[in-house]
Amino acid sequence: MAISSVAAEQVSIPNSEEGRSLPLPGVLHKPGGDGPFPAVVMLVGCGGYAGGGPNADHQSSWARKLVEWGYVALQVDSYSPRGPSLNCDYAGSITISRDAFAAKSYLSALPYVDPENIAVVGWSMGGIAALKIIDGYFRKEGMAPFQAAVAFYPQSYPVYKPDTPLLILIGEKDDICHPESSKLLAKKYAEQNWQPAMSLVVYPEAGHAFDLEGIDLVWQGHHLKYDPQAAADATERTRSFLAKYLVAR
Question: Which pTM was predicted?
Answer without folding.
Answer: 0.94
